[in-house]
Amino acid sequence: MTYKVAVIKGDGIGPEVVDEALKVLEVIGEKYNHKFEYKFLLAGGCAMDEKGTPLPEETLEECKKSDAVLLGAVGGPKWDDPTAKQRPEQALLGLRGGLGLYCNLRPALLYAPLRAASPLKDEVIGDGIDFSVVRELTGGIYFGDRGRFEENNEQYAYDTEKYSVTEIRRIVKTAFDIAVKRNKILTSVDKANILESSRLWRAVVEEVAKDYPEVKVNHMYVDNAAMQIVRNPRQFDVIVTSNMFGDILSDEASMITGSIGMLPSASIGENNRGMYEPIHGSAPDIAGMGLANPLATILSAAMMLKFSFNLQEEAEAIEKAVLRVLEAGYRTGDIFSEGMKKVGTKEMGSLVIGELSSVKVPC
Ligand code: NAD
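Above: inputs. Below: predicted complex with nicotinamide-adenine-dinucleotide.
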């Protein structure tokens, strides 16, 4: 089968880490008999330089024609003027909106060989951290009505949290579908003791839950959830929440795994079309030096196989290969500790490919 992938390497370390992910996909293609057809596209700072806009029309159109998008990172000091009309990050918002990507999925997974990198105590980590945050991405307060006005000689500003039942049902259903494939525990995070939008959110979760009797559902206020993520992260399997709460909690969740260079993410829309990218930025301080950790991007490619192409076995083969490389003691600078073997971007990619080559494909 042929899968069409739009590839946006972007800025900074983007091209370096994406190249390693593409090499891994080639090996998967050969081993499992799939063809990945790539369309290389510009977005971010490099697109501003070449085309005068962070998201050229052609990029969005080609992404719409593809089955999935694999993205490195965008941005960098060259385009960092906060007063500028155009910024590289506008490309990400344009892609999410233009492709209708309403669900952001971020796994918080602490690899056993990297447990020393977590800021949490050993007894809190216990036998490991492994949960996913499902964040609503195209609604809520970031898209609601906002403005400023004056009243009684005082300046005011307001932002509005607004969700429809349809928007909530769609993201909640996606979260249940993910929970079914994991440990079947769903925590819905809201602020229903105060916010009306949260009370509607909770009611919709209860309604959708009836279709998933095998999933254990609990509701948690967002302030408690922020505390529980560092106090007892092992209680979580899948967390589903609104755009703003998810923005904050998913960053907290990534921190407890210790390394930004290890974490993939997916933004998914209708018909499983998705955009897959590492959560890190363009890391201008190490760009072009061959030092970047490519594992977050390689694992993003694995998420693409799992969620957009339904290739579970292939995705797991990549995840296992990454784990074996870490178990063998290989580390890029960002995850290096005493006694380990330091490697660069390309070597890390080759090590993963080496492990993949030894995976046996069932006939
Ligand atoms: P960053 O994630 O780029 O870097 C933070 C720190 O982590 C740096 O020290 C960097 O060297 C290190 N780091 C990040 N990824 C790494 C990797 N794969 N391997 C090894 N080390 C890694 O965040 P920042 O410095 O705040 O932002 C730099 C630029 O990236 C900014 O222009 C920002 O706007 C942009 N950015 C883009 C995205 C995106 O494209 N999705 C996300 C965040 C930031």
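DSSP finds twelve helices and 14 strands in the chain.
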